[in-house]
Write a structure and sequence with these properties.
Two copies of one chain form a homodimer. In chain A, a hairpin with a 5-residue loop joins strand 1 and strand 2. The radius of gyration of chain A is 18 Å and the shape is globular. Helix content of chain A is 47%, strand content 5%. With 148 residues, chain A is mainly alpha-helical. Chain A binds a DNA duplex (30 and 30 nucleotides) through helix 3.
DNA sequence: ACTAACTAGGACTAAAATAGTCCCAGTTCC
DNA sequence: GGAACTGGGACTATTTTAGTCCTAGTTAGT
């Protein structure tokens, strides 16, 4: 139900790849290693650069490097960079919709948004690339058991 | 970033409308009251009925009623009914993708999915229609302050 | 100074998902 | 029997998304 665009997914993969070392990676190189089209990876890296998640180095031998340590980059940031601001519905608060009278639900959507935002903000890139999938939220596991 | 389809949004509105009383509501009536196209509302109610969130009554004077008490219907269920199963990425576990070697991130997506799923499962329809927007998650507020 | 290897940015196209409409068949009430 | 409904699916239009390509600008090496 909650769709994440492919870009957001790609974005995470690219970031995860780059997080493995501090070397400069060109778009072509990343593309080759991830088995993705060069043009697509290039586009994704441009987007990530614009949002300051990666730093671009111009010129020959240029490329991209993570802007921060993987521990300091959250999944929420990556998704934000690729798909725009997190919001589960269109009426995100600023614009008032005509149906507002019926839409007492709005406050709750916003609450839900916050919850999801929080959940994603807590997962760092470092956790994403952990070889053995790390458990994201210990409380959730304690109360519900380990997800299948 | 997390997009909810319009259908899911509509679905919640329709459910919220129906939750106000226990009367039988026809699709046309709901449509008129919510200011939506009759055909669209009809489609939405059919979907909700197929997922047993509303009960349909055939024939003249027929229509729809909530299948359960608003307190026992979660937002997650409504969204599920409209948009299919909750899943933030495409590789939801059963199918293995070719990129699996790079995709050590998968375990974490699943964890994130669970968190979001949980968050939505905790919000009931009754809470959604509460006149004063209820706070969904007290912990979140305590730790971060009331959302703007 | 020239060339090769890069990124920046945006225009553009193709493909797929979404939203929305319509139609016909079946059910029930009066 | 006719009117008022839902059930189900086919269909179309629209919007999003994904993906490609082109031109300009930057840097390293020779």
């Amino acid at each position: 139900m909650l769709r994440l665009s492919k870009f957001a997914d790609y974005g995470c993969q690219v970031m995860a790849y780059m997080a493995r070392d501090k070397a400069v990676h060109s778009a072509t190189e990343v593309a080759a290693n991830l088995g993705m089209a060069a043009a697509t990876v290039s586009k994704i890296l441009k987007m990530l650069a614009r949002e300051n998640l990666v730093v671009s180095l111009l010129g020959a031998k240029g490329g991209y490097v993570l802007a921060r340590h993987p521990l300091e980059i959250s999944v929420a940031e990556i998704i934000n960079a690729m798909d725009g601001p997190i919001s589960i519905t269109e009426c995100s608060g600023t614009t008032s919709c005509e149906r507002e009278s019926f839409c007492s639900t709005r406050g709750n959507w916003q609450g839900i948004n916050h919850i999801i935002q929080d959940a994603l903000a807590k997962v760092t890139l470092a956790e994403m690339i952990a070889p053995k999938p790390q458990i994201v939220n210990m409380r959730a596991i304690r109360s519900r058991g380990v997800p299948a």
